[in-house]
Amino acid sequence: MDIITICKDKLPNYEEKIKVFYQEHLHLDEEIRYILEGSGYFDVRDREDQWIRISMEKGDMITLPAGIYHRFTLDEKNYVKAMRLFVGEPVWTAYNRPADHFPAREHGRRLSFLCRHLIRVLITNGAGNRFLRGRE
Ligand SMILES: [Fe+2]
Predict the structure, then answer these.
(1) DSSP string over 44-100
(2) Ligand 1 centroid vs 63 CA: distance in angstroms?
(3) pTM for the full model?
């Protein structure tokens, strides 16, 4: 694991990185985040290809399965400190949409049918339903 702090003063190339995080993409490995401080939003696609916005704050953990299209953005606080969990070497490579040719995408496509339910399970803080319909 490692720890990333996303804010103007602490993250090199902040403006560029923020844009990259917000570009819709997938990974060939799970993306697991545990929020230590601050807050932000993960957006994922549901079965109708609409965004589901997930509000993340201190104490929340999320697992985005391989092959799931998603993006991340900060909220108005412009600050988050998160633990990035991975097995072995981290695989940060982001494949921007369209990236449907990867075998992981088939897995992700099947999961998107269950997405809303799955995300409820994957968010582990028990704080209740904090999903918002996504904005484009
Ligand atoms: Fe990602």
Answers:
(1) EE-TTS-EEEEEEETT-EEEE-TT--EEEEE-TT--EEEEEE-SSS-----EESP-T
(2) 10
(3) 0.83
Both tokens of 119, joined, read 């995300």
CA of 127 to the centre of ligand 1 (A): 23
Q: How far is the CA of 69 from the centre of ligand 1 (A)?
A: 8
Which residues 6+ apart lie within 8 Å of 24 measured at CB? 69, 70, 71, 96, 97
Distance 126 CA to ligand 1 centre (A): 23
Residues composing the chain: 136
- Structure confidence by residue, pLDDT tens digits, 42-83: 998 877 788 888 889 999 888 888 898 999 999 999 999 999
